Amino acid sequence: MSDSTPTSGKNGLKKATGVSPMNGGNGDYSYHKNSYYQRIAANFEHEKINEEIAEKFDIEDLALTKTIRIADLGCSTGPNTFINMHTIVEAIKQKHETLCPTSSTRPEFQLFLNDLVTNDFNTLFKSLPIDREYFVAVVPGSFHGRIFPESSLHFVFMSHSLHWLSKLPAALEDENSPAWNKGRVHYANAPDEVVKAYRSQFGEEVEKFLDARAKELVGGAMLVIIMSGIPVDLPFSSTANGVMFEFMASILMEMVQEGWIEESQVDSFNLPIYASASPEEMRNLVEKNGCFSIERLELAKPSSWLKDSVDVQDWMMHVRAAMEGIFIKHFGSVEAVDEMFKRLTKKHLDHSQLLPEWCDKEIQLFVVLKRKKIICI
C-alpha cells in the first residue's frame, strides 16, 4: 500500500489523495477476517515462485551469506503475509542446500514487513507463527521510495499492492481538466483523458518503485510481484472490478438524489487504483529502468483458482475491508458508506448470473524480476 494525505478541495471538501490502510483489528469488516480471496490468488502463484527460486535464485556468494533478508511490501495485517513468507523461506532453504550441499551451516532469515505507517501492525504481530524459523522486523512507509539501505535485500515480494496509487493524478482533481471524472469513481468506461491520466500516474510511480528497489537489492536478488493486470486488448469495463466500480458510481449518484451525500463529493472522488496494467506495459517500464532482467511475466484468471463460485456476500466483505477507509475519509459519513456497501452487495446479487462471465478473465499479473549484477545510475 502507499501513503495517503487528505487535502482540501473547493467548497472545503476533503479529498483523499491516495490509499488508506486495509481495515485493522479483527472485527466483521477487518482485513484480517476478510482477505481469503487475496490469499488464494497469491497461493495460486506459489508453485511458480518455487520454480523461479529453484532455477534462478543465485545471489553472489550464497554459500557465504549468513543472513538472507526478505521483504514483503504492502503486508497489511496478516495472516496472508506469513503464508507467503513461509513459502519463500522454504524454497530458499532448499536452494541453499542444493547449491551448498557440503556446507556445515545454514543461513538465517530476516523478514521485513512493510506497509503504511497507519497500518494496524499490532494485529499483524498477533498473527506471527509461534514456530517461525526467521527473525521479523517492521519497516513502515511508502514503498514508492527508498525504505531500506543500499544493497541490503536478497528477495522482495509483494502481493496485490503495486496497483494501488500513492496519489491520484493531478488532472483528476482539476474541474477544468478534460480528465475531470464527473459522476464516476474510476476510469472504467471513462473518457480517454481519464484513462491516460491514470496510466501516466501508474507509470511514474512504478519508475520510482523500480529505482528504489534497484538500489536496495543486491546483484542477483529477486523481485516477485503479484498484481492486478489485464491483456492489452481487454476492456477493463468488462472485468469484475470494472463492473463493480461502475456499480459504485451509479449507487453514489442514487444516494446524491436521496440526499445522503453531495454531488460535488462524488465528482471529486476517484479510487487510487490502476488495475489494468498489461504485460507489455510492465515490460516497457522494467526495460526503461534497465536494472532488472525479466524472468517471468504472465497473466492468470480467477476461474482457474476458485474451486467454487464467488460468494457475493463474502466478496463484498473483502472489498469493504480493503476500501472502506478510502470512502470514509472522503465522504465523512460512516452511515452513508455503510449504505453504499449494502446497496453494492444487493446490486451484485441482482446480477449474480453474470459473475462467472466477469470473473473468467485474465486479471492477475505475475512478474518475476532479477537484479542485474551491474551498477545502475
TrEMBL record:
Iron found in the keyword field: no
Swiss-Prot/TrEMBL GO biological process terms: methylation
Keywords: Magnesium, Metal-binding, Methyltransferase, Transferase
GO MF term list: metal ion binding; methyltransferase activity
Biased composition (Polar residues): 1-10
Disordered as annotated region, ranges: 1-21
Protein name: Uncharacterized protein
